Amino acid sequence: MWLVVQRLRPATLRFDALHPPMTGVPQWLIDVDTAPASELQLLPSIGPKLAQRIVDDRVNRGPFGGLRGLDRVSGIGPVALERLAPFVRSTH
Question: What does the pLDDT look like over 14-53, one tens digit per residue?
């Protein structure tokens, strides 16, 4: 008889207000109307340039009102919105 032991690893991302994670997938929902660029970069397919574009658009044109409002940002289309949906807080 063989005994198989599997080592369980703790989740690598936990929210710590003093040391927020800078990479990986967020373990909380992100509010695109208030999140800084550094937090937006935690979202799938959002790099530094696109995160800054989101922030700049929000500053210039006002809040997005949730996920669907992000489609006004260049570089975010239907596929990106679908990828982002599980990680973005809905305001409706």
Answer: 555 555 555 555 567 899 999 999 999 999 889 999 999 9
Domain boundaries, the chain: 37-87
Name which of 84, 74, 91 is nearest 39 in CA terms.
84
pTM of the model: 0.68
Distance CA 48, CA 41 (A): 6
* One-character DSSP codes across the chain: -----------S----TTS---SS--SS-B-TTT--HHHHTTSTT--HHHHHHHHHHHHHH----SGGGGGGSTT--HHHHHHHGGGB----
Q: Which of 20, 43, 91 is nearest to 73 (CA)?
A: 43
Dist. CA 91–CA 75, nearest whole Å: 22
